[in-house]
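Key result, reporting period 2: structure in, sequence out.
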């Protein structure tokens, strides 16, 4: 087990060996000392049981006011990964306890099982439109990530929150920098400002012309006389739209990639010997959309096994490593097996901060993927799988592009 005096595992911002990194983290767990890009040290939770326990431990707070290294001036104010850490507790990612419960009650209404299920026909409709567009160049190389995996969830979350289609490309570029581990200080500042200005402009438009969308609903939300401040609406929009499309983009791409690499598993789906729901869940475990989730902060010393997480230390959850835990997921967790019955994953989180958009991401994948493979049953990668290039992020598990030929 890792100890404070052991050599930290340095994470590669360019993700050149994701599989090896997952294995090293898991072997060093259940809690490992890690060095993030920029020389920032943290603790990484890499085993399933430890994650379940620590994700519900009230001594770990989401509020960065408890982060010792930051307040000692050891973290650069333009450190790229600060983009995903709320500087003030104004949204679901930066709050705990009663305040988190309050914000969740006012924002998670969009993702109840009933409301999500009502989106099924529209998801099918958008998917059909995208497939028709892909059909026009089916014999040519196309980037499935750009033309399908991105467009579907961005269209869905965009319609929900009233984000015009013309802005989707702009948001994609901004969020690529938002999640990057190698964003320059200048780009870091510019990206934060651009995203804030985008959503402030959206809020102003919805105040002037309220619509049938969730941005308007957030601005008008009232729960027993309680409403959201403009700062809370802004923070919520930035996080919900980011998570609402990025997770699903990667889920779609990673599942297609896994099935193209494992023709035997794809055959199980085609012959009805396995379900698409099972394929999506195994993809979430085996190649999760989020590699590492940062941060929680210790409000007091926490001892777990022979590791002590000191008060003020930061803790991240390594979902990629957790998915390789044989004590929960059974033998050969490195194998992609959609008939696997052992151990449900926690790739959408666990406890009070579990991702509220998980039902929507699952539904989009379960609707769109069978439609994609039914329309293009002979789809092939246009390059060798080893040539695919990951985006430079230790947080999200995404590819720069996913070139395919739909009808070879």
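The corresponding designed sequence is given below.
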């Amino acid at each position: 087990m890792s100890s404070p005096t052991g050599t930290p595992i340095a994470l590669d911002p360019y993700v050149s060996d994701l599989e090896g990194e997952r294995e090293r983290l898991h072997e060093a767990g259940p809690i490992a000392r890690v060095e993030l890009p920029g020389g920032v040290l943290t603790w990484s939770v890499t085993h399933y049981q430890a994650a379940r326990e620590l994700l519900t431990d009230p001594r770990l707070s989401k509020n960065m006011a408890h982060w010792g290294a930051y307040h000692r001036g050891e973290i650069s104010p333009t450190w790229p990964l600060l983009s995903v850490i709320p500087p003030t507790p104004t949204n679901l990612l930066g709050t705990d306890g009663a305040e988190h419960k309050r914000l969740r009650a006012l924002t998670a209404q969009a993702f109840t099982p009933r409301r999500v299920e009502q989106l099924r026909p529209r998801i099918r409709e958008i998917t059909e439109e995208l497939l028709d567009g892909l059909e026009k160049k089916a014999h040519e190389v196309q980037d499935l990530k750009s033309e399908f995996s991105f467009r579907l969830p961005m269209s869905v979350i965009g319609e929900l929150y009233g984000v015009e289609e013309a802005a989707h490309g702009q948001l994609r570029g901004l969020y690529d920098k938002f999640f990057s581990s190698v964003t320059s200080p200048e780009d870091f500042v510019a990206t934060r400002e651009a995203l804030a200005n985008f959503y402030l402009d959206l809020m102003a438009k919805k105040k002037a012309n309220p619509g049938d969308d969730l941005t308007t609903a957030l601005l008008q939300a009232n729960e027993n006389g309680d409403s959201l401040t403009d700062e809370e609406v802004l923070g919520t929009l930035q996080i919900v739209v980011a998570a609402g499309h990025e997770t699903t983009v990667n889920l779609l791409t990673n599942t297609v990639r896994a099935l193209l690499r494992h023709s035997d598993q794809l055959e199980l789906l085609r012959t009805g010997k396995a379900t698409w729901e099972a394929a999506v869940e195994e993809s979430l475990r085996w190649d999760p959309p989020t590699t590492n989730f940062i941060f929680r902060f210790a409000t007091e010393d926490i001892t777990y096994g022979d590791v002590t997480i000191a008060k003020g230390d930061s803790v991240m959850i390594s979902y990629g490593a957790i998915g390789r835990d044989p004590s929960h997921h059974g033998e050969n967790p490195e194998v992609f097996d959609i008939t696997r019955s052992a151990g449900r994953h926690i790739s959408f989180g666990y406890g009070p901060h579990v991702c509220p958009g998980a039902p929507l991401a699952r539904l989009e994948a379960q609707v769109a993927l069978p439609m994609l493979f039914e329309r293009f049953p002979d789809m092939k990668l246009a390059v060798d799988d080893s040539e695919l290039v990951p985006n430079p992020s230790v947080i999200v598990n995404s590819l720069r592009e996913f070139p395919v030929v739909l009808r070879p």
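Confidence is low (pLDDT under 50) at residues 1-5. The CA atoms of residues 63 and 94 lie 5 Å apart. This case is discussed further under Risks and Mitigation.
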